[in-house]
Specification:
The chain has 9 helices and 15 strands. With about 325 residues, it is α/β, with parallel strands linked by helices. The chain has a 9-stranded mixed beta sheet, with helices on both faces. Strands 4-3-7-8 form a 4-stranded mixed beta sheet. Strands 1-15 form a two-stranded antiparallel sheet.
């Protein structure tokens, strides 16, 4: 990443950002009391747009960006709702394609303290995603543009997309189970956003060694896979930034109140990408991402409408570094 010189200003991004990955319906259940397994638990459900790619795009749009989303959404009632939500959020959607599956859903139960009790993903629709439908879009991107992919979509289809154009490329590992899919295209990725567990899964670290392996070892394992830069989160601990041969820590301040952890990682990615598009160097961009993640977990839901003012990052004509 090329850092701007001291005294430089950041402008509204003129580059494009295309995000390919999950766009589905999140069904979140809020428990009124700590869960009691094996019996009925009082609470309430709500449905909102979700999915890694959609969440990241929503964060960027809330900060004033103009993201484009590539995914697969069915021609059903849930899909119609998602298309309307994309338009309302200022996201250009490229989500049509042939499929016999339902629009994807993610259902989860949240404890009163904001922690996740259990989640269930119905994502069969993504197996029908075909990169060829989005290749012309990616081919039109320039060297200054950005292409971000997540591992919800089939890895061989993601590889086809990543090879289609010259844009700067970002990969999101999404989950422990899906992170190893990135092995099929790590040679094409410029920056990986991941967490400690997902990074270890990607690198083939045994579950029993995840808590004890050092950040330098994880960084070395990622380099062996051909990954040039990586942003590795670890809950409330400092963020590890691998940038070429350098490894540094980005401070994560303590948070007094946690309402809901949903969307924290996506907020970090979205704010970081927007900052990069505004010209901030990678380390500074991650600081904005940390602020966004912390603001997100202090409110219920995966997206805050006031995020730009809370973290001090938006499209301003002359925002000094």
């Amino acid at each position: 990443m090329n850092a701007k010189q001291p005294g430089a200003t950041t402008h509204k991004p003129s580059c494009r950002l295309v995000i390919a990955g999950a766009a589905h319906v999140d069904r979140t259940g809020w428990l009124e009391a700590p869960s009691a397994l094996g019996c009925s638990n009082p609470g309430r459900f709500e449905e909102t747009p979700g999915g890694t790619a959609l969440n990241v795009a929503s964060v960027i749009a809330s900060l004033g960006g103009a993201p484009e989303l590539v995914s697969l959404v069915a021609q059903d009632s849930a899909g119609s709702g998602l298309r309307a939500d994309l338009k309302q959020r200022g996201i250009t959607g490229h989500v049509d394609g042939e499929t016999a599956a339902n629009t994807g859903t993610y259902t989860c139960l949240i404890e009163p303290d904001g922690s996740l009790l259990v989640g269930m993903a119905d994502m069969a629709i993504y197996n029908d995603f075909l990169a060829r439908n989005a290749v012309p879009l990616v081919q039109a991107l320039s060297l200054e543009d950005w292409l971000c992919v997540d591992t919800n979509l089939p890895p061989h289809q993601m590889r086809q997309l990543l090879q289609a154009g010259p844009a700067r490329r970002v990969g999101l590992t999404v989950s422990k189970a899906k992170a190893p899919r990135m092995k099929e295209f790590t040679d094409l990725i410029d920056i990986v956003f991941t967490n400690r567990v997902e990074a270890c899964s990607l690198c083939g670290v045994d579950d029993g060694d995840i808590e004890t392996i050092g950040v330098d070892e994880i960084a070395a394992a990622l380099r062996e896979l051909g990954i040039k830069s990586a942003v590795i989160t670890d809950g409330t601990k400092d963020v590890t930034l691998l940038d070429g041969a350098e490894v540094q820590l980005i401070t994560v301040p303590p948070v007094q109140h946690v309402a809901d952890v949903t969307g924290a990682g996506d907020a970090l990615v979205g704010a970081s990408l927007h900052a990069l598009m505004c010209g901030f160097p990678l380390a500074k961009a991650i600081e904005f991402g940390v602020k966004a993640a912390q603001a997100t977990i202090q409110a219920k839901g995966a997206l805050r409408s006031d995020l730009a003012s809370l973290i001090g990052l938006a499209n301003r004509p002359t925002a000094s570094l």
